Structures are given as C-alpha cells and as structure tokens.
Amino acid sequence: MGALKGRDLLSLADLSTEEVLFLLDFAAQLKSGSVQPRCPKVLGLLFSKASTRTRVSFSVAMGHMGGQVLDLNSNLTQMGRGEPVEDTARVLDRYLDVVAIRTFEQAEVETFAHHAKIPVINALTDLEHPCQILADLQTVFEAFSTFDGLTMTYLGDGNNIAHSLLLGCALVGLNVRVATPQAFQPLPEIVAKAKEIAGDRSSITITTDPEQAAKGAHILYTDVWASMGQEDKADDRVPIFMPYQINAPLMALADPAAIVLHCLPAYREKEISHGVMESSASRIWDQAENRLHTQKALLASVLGAEI
Predict the structure, then answer these.
(1) Is 38 known to be catalytic?
(2) Is 102 an active-site residue?
(3) What are 280-297's pLDDT values in tens digits?
(4) Which one of 39, 53, 97, 129 is the catalytic residue?
(5) Model confidence, pTM
(6) Positive or negative CA dihedral for 194, 129, 277, 138?
(7) Could you report the per-residue pLDDT of 106-157, keeping only the tens digit for each?
(8) Which one of the listed residues 136, 245, 263, 283 is annotated catalytic?
(9) Contact 180, 156 (CB under 8 A)
(10) Is 132 a known active-site residue?
(11) Domains present along the chain, CATH in parentheses
C-alpha cells in the first residue's frame, strides 16, 4: 500500500501492472469483509458532470472507513464563477485530504494535480474513466478467476470508456478488441500507448466490424452512444451505431460462457437489448457494485489507511 500513498490517479497509464493487481486483490478482500481499513480523512468531490454510481460509491466508501465527504458541486463553488482551477486547487489542498474530480477536460484534472499536494483522482473526464475500469477488471476476474487467454470486446463509441479499457486490459494482459464506426474510433495516441503497455502479452485490435470483434469473445462491453455533453447528437447517432448493439444474435457469436458488461446508465434497445441486459450473461449489477470496492481500495491506498 505504501507505494500508492500520496499518488494521483489521472490515467490508468499512471499505474503499473503490479499496482493494478494489488488494487484488485485489495478490493476483493474489502468485498469479502476480510479487511476493513480505518481512514478518518476528508474527500472532496468536485463534479461538473452528473453522477450516480461515482458520487454514491465514493461517498459510501469514505463513510465505511470513518471518513467524511464534501460534495463540491462546481455550480455552488467559485469555480462556477470563473475562479481558475489552479487557485481552487491551492485552496482545497489546505482543507482536504484527497479530491475526486469529474469534469470535461482532462487538462483540468492535470492542472489541479499540478497545483495540489493531496492525491487527485480522475472520477471521469472526456478522455478517460480509470475508476470505472478498475471495477470492470474486478468483475472480469470474479467471473473467470484469471485474465490469461481472455478477450474483451468493446462495441460502440470510442470514448473515455474505450480509452481506459484499452489501457486497463493492456496492463493486466487481456486481449482487447474495440469495434466502432470509422468516424468514432478511439484516439490513435491512446491505442499506441495501450500497445506499448501490452507488449507481446496481449493483442489489441481496432475494427469497424462488430461481428468479427464479437466472435469467440469472453466479455462483451458497451456504453451509451452519446456521452454527457453530446445529448443533442444522440438521435442522429442511432442509425450509425445500431449495428453495434449487443443483442442475442451478437451474443451467439461470442464464447458460450461470455459475460456482458455496461458501465451504466443504459438505454435499452439502443446500445444493448433488454433481453441481453436481463440475461444470465449480464454481470452489470456486479460491475456497478464493484465501483464501491475498487474505489475504497484506491482511497485507502492513496491515503495510507490503517488496516
């Protein structure tokens, strides 16, 4: 735990393979109840975007450890009136023990981290969602007891989830396929970074063919087709993305023991069919629960909690 004390998590690429595996093992212990950290510290949630799972799971995690949470809605702070990020960072650094930031620009969390000494956690930006992917990896390991030889297929928009999945799968040696329409592929620099991390341990495939991507896959994963801030484009995207819907015909192409993941919120009959979401293959609710355990492991680790 000492290696993570005081650390930021702005991108999954900030972590080593050993650190990711440590966090996943720690999260499993927390879920089982075999350990219970004590951490009477103060977490600030500085959120500029709507949140259910992230806000609640971080808050419950701190409560379980005897800590406190300040929900710092940007509209209720001076940032909403234009106070520079670096000034807010310097002030909150004097009050808080850790801060989780959910915003649009990755540069905002990076600027905040540059001007604050306390740990800064990326709770979602338009570029990445590292906390979500830690929970996803825990869910995969619970289902298969290994990462070796498994293939994760992500279908839909090459967004922040796709970016962090590429990095997270590369770190643990999961083969990953990302299938998107041509104009919605993940950023080339993220793909290149994931390939650098993966080396020869796992394969990374970017394609426009959803059926080819689904063949033999052990995990099928999707997300909304229009992220927060893109709601005005949602209807226009439906015909473009409909071939990437996770449905029964696509599931039939996957491994017979394949599981299905969705980071939520879900729009049934768009990116995922109602039948698949409610099927025995779905691990979506386990995945949502695991946000609590992985984030508690992360908070306890960066704060140096007592066990």
Answers:
(1) no
(2) yes
(3) 999 999 999 999 999 999
(4) 129
(5) 0.96
(6) positive
(7) 999 999 999 999 999 999 999 999 999 999 999 999 999 999 999 999 999 9
(8) 263
(9) yes
(10) yes
(11) 2-129+291-303 (3.40.50.1370), 132-287 (3.40.50.1370)
